[in-house]
Design goal:
single chain, mainly alpha, Rossmann fold, two-stranded parallel sheet, about 45% helix
Length: about 230
């Protein structure tokens, strides 16, 4: 959508890409090299993020990572690394000239509004009608069809082509479901995730960060809910 507006954004993983095989404890908390840039941090419920990451790593990048249960516990790929990465950015946000946070859940719920907000971070004013038209054209089903047909690959290269057209899990535009992790994680996996989230105080950190830097400037964000069926830790 940003390309449709002509916003020259640079996308990156800041040293956390799968190819680096870098453990969460080895991530660099120093973000000073970005201090003069406009930074948009996109976050997602780490449980959904780790499931999506598993399919990206194993079906698209050919990484031998074992089962999903093993992957989410692996400090090179799993949920603790995702949380640590985000919390490092939460801590560094005040050092950036321009910094904002956008949640995947926000974007799914109100794509046109969030597009306007993100464009505003880049210094661009987009009217509601234009934002709505772009958001409609880039809706999830439309993007998935564009990946399947090769349209996205023609524009962006092989990075946006399915690894196997017959394997729905190998698409870059895969499911896009909020809360879809429930389909894939066992009860033991869910409780492990809950333990990590609580021990790292991730929800508290997210709410505090979103209250300060929410790209839509709406104040406190509603955090994803804890799993009440898991034992308190």
């Amino acid at each position: 959508m940003l390309d449709d507006l002509g916003v020259g954004a640079v996308f990156g993983h800041d040293g956390s890409a799968f190819a680096d095989r870098r453990a969460g404890g080895d991530l660099d908390p120093d973000k000073s090299k970005y201090s003069e840039a406009g930074v948009l941090l996109m976050v997602r419920d780490p449980r959904d993020a780790v499931v999506s990451s598993y399919f990206q790593a194993t079906r698209r990048e050919g990484i031998e990572a074992g089962s999903l249960s093993m992957f989410l516990r692996d400090d090179r790929y799993g949920i603790s690394k995702i949380c640590r990465f985000n919390m490092q950015w939460f801590a560094a946000g005040h050092r950036m000239d321009r910094f904002a946070i956008l949640s995947y859940e926000q974007m799914r719920a109100s794509p046109a509004a969030t597009l306007r907000a993100v464009a505003g971070l880049a210094g661009m004013v987009v009217d509601e009608r234009a934002a709505a038209a772009i958001a409609s054209d880039r809706a999830f089903d439309r993007m998935r069809a564009a990946e399947a047909s090769g349209e996205l690959a023609e524009r962006y290269g092989e990075i946006l082509r399915p690894a196997d057209a017959n394997d729905s899990q190998s698409f870059k535009v895969r499911r896009g479901v909020v809360g879809g992790y429930l389909r894939y994680l066992s009860r033991a996996d869910l409780c492990y995730c809950e333990q990590v989230l609580r021990s790292m105080q991730y929800r508290y950190g997210l709410v505090a960060a979103m209250a300060r830097w929410n790209v839509e400037r709406k104040g406190d964000a509603e955090p994803f809910q804890p799993d009440r069926n898991c034992r308190q830790v």
